[in-house]
Amino acid sequence: MVGDGGVVAGPGGDRDAPEPVRLARSRLYRDGVCTLADFPVDDVAEHLADPAAVLWLDLYRPSAEDLGMLETDIGLHELAIGECLDKGQRPSLNRYPEHLALDAYGAALDPDTSSLTLYEIAVFCTDRVLITIRKDCGLDLDPVIAGWDAAPGLTRHGVAYLLYGLLDHIVNGQFQAVRQLDEAVDDLEEQLFGARGSAVRPAQQRLFQLRRDLIALRRVVKPMEEVVESLLNQDVLAIDDAVSPYYQKLYDHAMRAADWTDALHDLAATTVQTNLITQANHLNMIMKKVTSWAAIIAVPTAITGFYGQNVPFPGYGSAWGVFVSTALIAILSVLLYTVFKRKDWL
């Protein structure tokens, strides 16, 4: 099996011939069983001459010239080729005269940092050919192949089931990412509202990072519901009665992932707002305490300032005058403290 970025060369060694397609994997199915793997892309037309053959081609970062080699044999539309070469496409399903073009994203969370990573993939499918174009090597397709090979009775239904296996793997990955983000938000809420002092800021930064990840995940999960719903339309893809229940289950799974992402996005937004309100209330409490202590300190400041005038005052020049002023400061300060404490200002 050729690894990512490997080259499967066609027959012949002519240096003037175009560079062969960078083919990560290829498989040929007959009656649901893989009878040939890792064949050269130059043999596609030969294999398609067999009406019982169903092909899967997996291309890794192909160029326009690479895809142009398949345009004649498979009938890829030039607009679809141009779009699949551009990164950052919105998940969507487009119908062309000879094939369907689909864009989707795999999702995964780093187990250590819980940071989200998205893997873009473009898909072309005809009635007998499924082409996956990976724009990075992060999306693992081994489980997809294992699922195909484990169910030859369903794989014999051709591209319809092959595409289901691929989309099911993608949607499951998205669903798992939503689940992990949900757990991360729950854990962060406990940390955030239980944190004190210097521990608050890292928790706030992590919260905002989680919210950005949720926004990014929501942008790729929500459209998948529309994509699968379109595939359920018999006018778009020939899905027979044996495969249709699997697409219905896939649609329900995509819808649950989309709804969960919406709910989690709202929860994260509410958590951010609650945190801001909590911080504002905490700041108000601090301001009340500072103001109350300033009022208490203002009493001795006023009395000593008044007695600091260059005019005689009661008790001027005598010990009892000092005692009276000191007692007055203490009594008024305690009185203000008691009043502020009862009003929960301190």
Q: Main traits of this protein?
A:
346 residues; alpha+beta; 7-stranded mixed sheet; 9 helices; disordered N terminus
Describe this structure in words.
By secondary structure, the protein is an alpha+beta fold. It contains 9 helices and 7 strands; from the N terminus they run ββαβααββββαααααα. A hairpin with a 3-residue loop joins β6 and β7 (about 130-135). α2 (about 65-75) runs antiparallel to α3 (about 80-85), α6 runs antiparallel to α7 (about 200-230) and α6 runs parallel beside α8. The radius of gyration is 35 Å and the shape is rod-shaped. The N and C termini lie far apart (about 70 Å).
Give the helix proportion (percent range). 55-70%
Task: Note the run of SSEs as H and E.
Answer: EEHEHHEEEEHHHHHH
Strand content: 5-15%
Note the main sheet.
7 strands, mixed
Q: What is the residue-averaged pLDDT?
A: 79
State the total count of DSSP E strands.
Answer: 7
Instruction: Identify low-pLDDT runs.
Output: 1-22
Distance separating the two termini: 72 Å
Number of helices: 9
Shape: rod-shaped
Structural class: alpha+beta
Tell me the radius of gyration: 35 Å
Major beta sheet, strand line-up: 2-1-3-7-6-5-4
